């Protein structure tokens, strides 16, 4: 692994645990065992390092979106793969919180270039979810209560809210329970309307 990638990985862990304003180049230098000058060589400013972390996450979303066009498409499997990734990361503490989610909570205090990258991450994720939900509805697998865009935003909010709730309670299973309920709601048919008696 290159020094640059080690720096990005270290920053990712620190942001997930402490947020952008909770870590410094000194923390990264100590963790990676390099001098601060070496970090500045790769990333002149702290926001450059944090932006590299976010851009890696965005690249994964783009890669997964492209993969949707290949092979058999299973919308439920796509959503379970996404939520399952976070369920595992929260359970084994490898990634207890999405780095973009942590940064979004600090958005008013972030440098403009980093804030823009964070917003773009959420736009990419929302677009991917909208695509999955649209295809799922077309296949008769999902019953959407609103537009695919609204459902995508709601699903994203549910996942991030579940992460926050699991962290607040210190109980990873909370995330899994909330997500399971959300997936069940998507797949279920809406309740029939009451028939008025004449």
TrEMBL record:
PROSITE patterns per record: HTH_TETR_2 (PS50977)
Pfam family, one: TetR_N
Domain of life assignment: Bacteria
TM regions (residue ranges): none
Keywords of this entry: DNA-binding, Transcription, Transcription regulation
InterPro entries: Homeodomain-like_sf, HTH_TetR, Tet_transcr_reg_TetR-rel_C_sf, TetR_C
Gene3D superfamilies from the UniProt entry: Tetracycline Repressor, domain 2
Domain HTH tetR-type residue range list: 1-61
Annotated region of DNA binding: 24-43
Entry protein name: TetR/AcrR family transcriptional repressor of nem operon
Protein source organism: Dyella japonica
């Amino acid at each position: 692994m290159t020094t640059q990638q080690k720096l990005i990985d270290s920053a990712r862990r620190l942001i997930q645990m402490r947020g952008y304003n909770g870590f410094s180049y000194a923390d990264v230098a100590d963790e990676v065992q390099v001098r601060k000058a070496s970090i500045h060589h790769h990333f002149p400013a702290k926001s450059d390092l944090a932006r590299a972390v976010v851009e890696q996450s965005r690249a994964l979303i783009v890669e997964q979106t492209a993969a949707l066009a290949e092979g058999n498409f299973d919308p439920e499997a796509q959503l379970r793969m996404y939520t399952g990734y976070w369920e595992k990361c929260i359970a084994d503490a490898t990634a207890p919180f999405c780095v973009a989610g942590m940064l979004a909570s600090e958005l008013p205090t972030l440098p403009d270039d980093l804030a823009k990258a964070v917003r773009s991450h959420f736009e990419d994720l929302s677009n991917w979810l909208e695509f999955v939900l649209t295809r799922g509805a077309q296949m008769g697998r999902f019953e959407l209560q609103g537009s695919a865009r609204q459902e995508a935003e709601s699903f994203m909010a549910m996942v991030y809210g579940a992460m926050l709730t699991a962290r607040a309670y210190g109980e990873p299973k909370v995330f899994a329970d909330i997500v399971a309920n959300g997936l069940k709601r998507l797949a279920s048919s809406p309740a029939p309307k009451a028939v008025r008696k004449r």
